[in-house]
Amino acid sequence: MAAALLLADAEPETRGFLERHLPGDGFELVPAHGRFDLVLAGDVDGVDRWLPRAPVIVLGHEEADTVDCIHAFRRGCDDYVMRPFEYAELVERIRAVLRRAAPRTGEVVEAPPVRIDTRTRDVRVDGRRMQLAQKEYELLLCLAREPERVFTKAELLRDVWNYRTIGRTRTLDSHASRLRRKLREAGSPVALIENVWGVGYRLVGELPLE
Question: What are the chain's domains?
Answer without folding.
Answer: 3-101 (3.40.50.2300), 132-203 (1.10.10.10)
